[in-house]
Amino acid sequence: MKDTSFSVAKALAIFFMVLAHSGCPSWISGFVSMFHMPFFFICAGYFFKAAYWDNGQPFVERRIKRLYVPFVKWSVVMLCLHNVLSLTGIISGRGSELYDWHTFFQHVWSCLFNMSGYDNITCGAYWFFRTLLLVSLAYWLLGALLRRLRLRVWHKSLFIGIPALLMAVWMCGEGLRMTGVAQGGYRELMGLYFFSCGVVYRELEPRIRHRWAYALGGLVVLVVFQLVGWRAALTYTSTVGRCFSLALTGLLGFMMLRVVSLWLVRLPGKLVRPLAYIGEHTLYIFAFHALAFRLVSMIKIGVYHLPWSQMGNQMVVTYRTDDAFFLLYTLFGMAVPLLVRIAWRRYDNRSAMAFCQDTWRSVKKAYRDIMAASDTKDE
Questions:
Q1: CA distance 199 to 42
Q2: Among the four 102, 134, 212, 274, which has the fewest Cβ within 10 Å?
Q3: C-alpha 172: how far from chain center
């Protein structure tokens, strides 16, 4: 039978990601931010195969197909909708200015060649696509360069991960930036460290006994870090202390979710299958949860009779953060992208093609009628 434990773990991690963006109380967002994004990089490293160092074409093609192509496609779609969303007030404030053709094409150009330039209001989490792609390719390339060294896989991973962490610390201490990498490259270095941790963990996992004890210990450490204020998130800027803190809490959080998922898969299939489905389609939630939040913002504006301008350029409406609207934000952020995907997949492709053809015929007919009317008027 297919092992769905990692799919379940990814479902838990994406839930925490959406929850952290939902305007929840700061103690909740601060706690989950210590591990929810590092989890995905560790998970990606866990499934890296050493055989890719001898034949990397399948790996590179898969990474481009699953990360670069969706990023460009969805980024350009949201850029096309930017002016509509701005004119209707669904997005407003800084960053919602109308695009002229030059600005639009520049954003598209940046998406194609630098994986940046996306709409920050509706696509704020798209940095993950770029970071994971660069991290995956960098790990594969560095591992291939170390191939001649007669070392075990997890030893090579240490040779890659530890220098990446030290470089991230150096970057934080000196305020350095990687020129040519959007947002400076700190996330990429930390992602490379966590990716390497995933490879090491996979190699050492069979030797780990009493994993529940490590998970419980990790939970205790996370709670302590939360209480004393040592928490850190995978932001594009950081400090030396937060860099070290994230390096530890990200790994402990991964172990915690891993153990919880192994326990959850023992539950009846009716409970496990929905979680596994969510975990297998996390990219859709990454891509569209911020847009789904806008639906809840409309509801909140109506409930509190707020001006439409409260939509703003933030993910959520910040008025009355002590209410329970963050739960509704979380529900919509996870459910709406998946429901839209399910509906689209079930839609008959032939009907979609017929709809496009009928629309094109109607546009051409309207154009001919307008031109004919113009010629008659001139006569």
A1: 8
A2: 102
A3: 23
Neighbours of 323 (CB within 10 A): 13
Is pLDDT above 90 for 374? no
The encoded tokens of residue 341 equal 């995907």
For residue 65, give both structure tokens.
């197909």
Q: Residue 15 has which token pair?
A: 């839930």
Closest listed residue to residue 200, CA positions, set 240, 239, 256, 143: 143
How many other C-beta atoms are found inside a 10 Å radius of the C-beta of residue 205?
12
Structure tokens at 345: 């997949």
Q: How far apart are CA 285 and CA 292, in angstroms?
A: 9
DSSP 312: T
CA distance to 235, 270, 344, 351, 364, per residue, from 360 (Å): 45, 44, 21, 14, 6
Question: CA-CA distance, 131 to 36, in Å (whole number)?
Answer: 15
- Which one-letter DSSP state was computed for residue 115? S
**Considering only CA atoms, which of 6, 31, 33 is closest in space to residue 17?**
33
| 228, two tokens | 């004393």
Q: Between 332 and 209, where is the model more confident?
A: 332
What does the CA dihedral 352, 354, 358, 361 come to, rounded to 10 degrees?
A: 110
Q: What proportions of the chain, in percent to the nearest 5, are helix, strand and coil?
A: 75, 0, 25
Q: Give the three-class secondary structure for 274.
A: helix
DSSP, collapsed to helix, strand or coil, labels residue 135 as helix
pTM attached to this predicted model = 0.89
Rounded CA separation 187/185 (Å):
5
Q: Is the pLDDT of residue 276 over 50?
A: yes
Tell me what the mean pLDDT of segment 147-153 comes to.
Answer: 82
Give the pair of three-digit tokens for residue 57.
């074409």
Percent of all residues in the chain with a pLDDT value above 90, rounded to a whole number: 69
pLDDT at 70 exceeding the cut of 80: yes
State the amino acid at position 106 in one-letter form: Q
Tokens coding 161:
């991960």
Task: Kindly state the DSSP code that residue 67 receives in the 8-state scheme.
Answer: I
Q: Is the dihedral of CA 52, 55, 56, 62 positive or negative?
A: negative
Q: Which two tokens stand for residue 151?
A: 């070392």
